[in-house]
Input
Amino acid sequence: MNLQDFENMDLPESILWHARNMPPCVKALNSEIINMVDDSQITIRCPVQPEFCNPYGSMQGGFITAAFDNAFGALSLLSLKRYSTTLSLNTVFHRPIFPGDTLTIEAKILSRGRNVIYMRALAYNEEKKHIASADTNYVLVPDE
Output
């Protein structure tokens, strides 16, 4: 995600600190937020790079799942303005995606409980073909 994406939002300084100091796993995918709707839906995209590919030449499933997790993490952080972490994450792969293409992920919050957030996302290539889908449960991290 780009730092400017976060700087332009009304976020607590503690959240902005984390945006300024993103971990290597987020930076590696070179993801960027391209849309956010009503604090309940986010769209991100990331380029498919050769170093993320399996021997077949397509993006390895673990990297696709990491991209989903990055989208879910950004969505929960930006909508709740609190920290949460992955409780469960299920990914289903539908077709391969190759270097030179862009993986676009549309994620949305489907329900919020007191401590758990349930989200679902779809991933597409540049031709709008469905690449994968995922759903997750995030649990809120208690305030310290």
Residues 3-140 form a domain with the Thiol Ester Dehydrase; Chain A fold (CATH 3.10.129.10). The beta strands are 32-37, 41-47, 84-93, 102-112, 116-124, 130-140.
